Amino acid sequence: MPNNETTKIPAPLYAAAGAGDIAIERLRKLPEKVAQLQERVNTLSDQFPGRVSTLQEKVTAKVAEVPSIVAELRQRVVDADADKLRESAKRNAQTLLTQAQAAQERAAAIYADLIARGEVVVGRSMPGQADDAPIHAEVIEPAKPEVEAEAPAAEFVKKPAARQRKTNPKGDAK
Question: Where are the domains of the chain?
Answer without folding.
Answer: 11-142
